[in-house]
Amino acid sequence: MATTENIYIHNDASANSKRNIKTNIRLILFPLILCVLLVLIQSLVNNELDKPSNRCGCTCVDTGNGQCERRCGIEYSTLTQAFTCPITHPPEWPPLLQLPEQQYRAVRTDYISYGDLPDESCKRTGSCPVIMLITGNNQTIAQSVAGNMLARPSSINFSDMPYSLADYALGSETKTRNTNFLEAAFFSNRPVDYIQPQCPSNSQFSVSLELGSVAVQQDVRCVRGLHLWRNSSSEINDEIYKGYRKGNPEERINEIVAAYDFLNTNENLFNVSIWYNATYKNDTGNQPLGLTRVPRSVNLASNAYLQLLLGPSARIAFEFVKEMPKPGTKLTLDFSSLLGPLFFTWVIVQLFPVVLTALVYEKEHRLRIMMKMHGLGDGPYWMISYAYFLAISSTYMLCFVIFGSVIGLKFFTLNDYTIQFVFYFIYINLQISLAFLVADLFSNVKTATVVGYLMVFGTGLLGGFLFQFFLQDASFPKAGLIAMELFPGFSLYRGLFEFSQYAFNGAYMGTNGMEWKDLNDSNNGMKEVLIIISVEWLVVLCFAYYADQVVSSGKSPLFFLRRHQKKLSSSFRKPSLRRQGSKVFVEMEKADVVQEREKVEQLLLESSTSHSIICDNLKKIYPGKDGNPEKFAVRELSLALPSGECFGMLGPNGAGKTSFINMMIGLIKPSFGTAYVEGLDIRTDMDRIYTSMGVCPQHDLLWETLTGREHLLFYGRLKNLKGAALTQAVEESLKSVNLFHGGVADKKSGKYSGGMKRRLSVAISLIGDPKVVYMDEPSTGLDPASRNMLWNVVRRAKQDRAIILTTHSMEEAEHLCDRLGIFVDGSLQCVGNPKELKARYGGSYVFTMTTSSNHEEEVENLVRNLSPNSTKIYQISGTQKFELPKHETRISDVFQAVDNAKSRFTVQAWGLADTTLEDVFIKVARGAQAFNVLS
């Protein structure tokens, strides 16, 4: 018996790979074309941005001798052109503190009840001070140092700006930028603030700053500052935690400028920890949105401690901050990073309908069940199919990343390739598993294709125009994002979005993109995405396999709880007493059918038997629909077939022959009763039965892109044939069905005629020496020569196996079948070899004579003299047919009577024929149908 554990095999997908090279190439070319399209669009955009109007500005300067010197630089540029200019000497800006906006400044509330905080009413008047919190081991020294921080200089040197302003504790509510070439505080409508314990009445003045050749006029105003004592750093932490953001990122209340813990500071030791406000750092990417204004806080504390020791004239100068110089640049746009999440989501998700339609195609055309009926188990099928789709998807993604990198897309070149590999590999595994799961919901390829591509475009559009909105909304809770990322398409979009953000920022800042260390950033969503898709991959894969076993294989939903049933010596088990309602039916059965039933009952009591097939009281009932009664397709069939016998099933259309075959090959489950094949129960052991079974279905189940030879090689491997034995078996099979010569064996089966496909299906059913073979109308569509050749094949094949064959050809049944069974309305009406049936149901001769119509009466008298119990069955224009019972008719008397009649009248033609199998079939069918109508 063939097994599937140790065979080398490729399923239809891998076998088709040679034929699907063009399709796979087109599939892989899609992302390459899209990458090229992005590069072209990016090139067009960059060419547009690189126009002279966007380049660093230039002008002609008169040198005094009548000549014009061309000079370029930021001082000759517009704001748009300034971004591309080289800045060899960046401007110097006074150091600033980051101040909270007026409505967010710390005040006394019901949950922060420190009495030294200002009342909340100051927010309505716009007079809230900025707060600095102080603590330390020595309160006296800590408060003394804090008191020196906000000391106001005696005067401002307006001729030495901005250095004179650096002596003030300057701050601004304006958000910073990611560079400091232009300090945002000096290019906004808001004044720059300087912090004092008390603000005088004339607390606002204006200063002029020189920026190259441009003068910037800036208002400076006083803001009241308070340094408040807290008993410990834990109190400061508690106050900051309760007051800051209050759980809502947009509800920033009770912000402080900074907090200082002077720890064990004394006259001989300076030790301080500083809290600072990080509200304005970016929540995306690996670069801050703005430069954090922390250095001035450190300088204020250091300077105040120095003044405590040496007096107010001592100070640590912190005159300015400035950006590093930068070269001239071109104004470019990383288009792939901006649109990457949307486009690349479409690129990757398009693999889903490809896998889905391949799986549904096998299901719709019953190719998988055909493979299963020839011995391919569920486990090997899943492993082979999964490995094939994984190989195709991996190649697809590898080409995608390599090509995108070769043509220079920052999306690929800046982000760590190992992170990309892990992300793409896990996701394509999840996508394949999801396709296996969804395939159970479809039975039509067209429907699956439409739904699959709707998911492709829907995922991209929902990700780009809905999910991304939530990603960029800092107020949206993280738990909500995780919940949305449980949908695999959004997980993919989130990962691609993170790649795009890091690539865009890296291209803009001249740094690397995403690296493994960045996954520890709380604002980086890649880590959670990798966890989600990894867990989903395993869960979906397990659930898909379970659903496949229940839906496709027809197993019980609790199949995993059933212990594996082994084949025992007592595997033929006689069922309990037959139901009472079947007694009347048994009494009406013919003797031969009753004898067959008794034979089955006896075989079921034996511990072993040479019979390959035993059907015990097998019944199939289809439930009624739309008010119609239930349909009895097979009625209590009992049948036993020994090895080496070909059993023919005859019957009109709808008699139940195909339903019986479908039960035996596992396509449908019996309603009652069971059958045993080589000692295995069809209800529970079909997986093992498949390894010793061959099937020629009523309709050819072939891959149109495979040749006849490839079909037989494939199914031969399923039957555990290898090497030379496989090659020999394939060639013999092709020769036996006349598909070997003329290059027919290497033509695609899609180009075969109907007869050639039929012959190939017969060859498939017999390859690998199966012990049981089912042939459902194998000679349909064959010409006489091919049919005769097929009969020879079947006659040779039945020597060591049991064959069940259905046919409408009486000639075929008589030539091939050792025994015949005639079915009518699902019931077995008779069983026996052709000669027995003709003797039993055809116990008469058919006498035919043609004369002129004037002598019809004389012919009737002749027949009545030969056989008093004869019956006229046909009469037209002088031609009459009669049935003559054999027991009262001698052939010699018939010849003598005809010779005497010729002397009296003209006999145009006459004949005497024995009963044919067709006559038997018609007689039995009509009798059974008449009985069913009466009953």
Automatic annotation (TrEMBL):
Ranges where the ABC transporter domain occurs: 613-850
A molecular function GO annotation: ATP binding
Primary site of residence: membrane
Alphabetized CDD domains for the sequence: ABC_subfamily_A (cd03263)
Transmembrane segments: 27-45, 338-361, 381-409, 421-443, 450-471, 491-508, 529-547
Keywords recorded for this protein, A-Z: ATP-binding, Membrane, Nucleotide-binding, Transmembrane, Transmembrane helix
Membrane topology qualifier: Multi-pass membrane protein
Cellular component GO terms, alphabetical: membrane
Gene3D superfamilies to which the protein is assigned, alphabetical: P-loop containing nucleotide triphosphate hydrolases (3.40.50.300)
Subcellular location: Membrane
Family per similarity comment: Belongs to the ABC transporter superfamily. ABCA family. CPR flippase (TC 3.A.1.211) subfamily.
Official protein name in the record: ABC transporter domain-containing protein
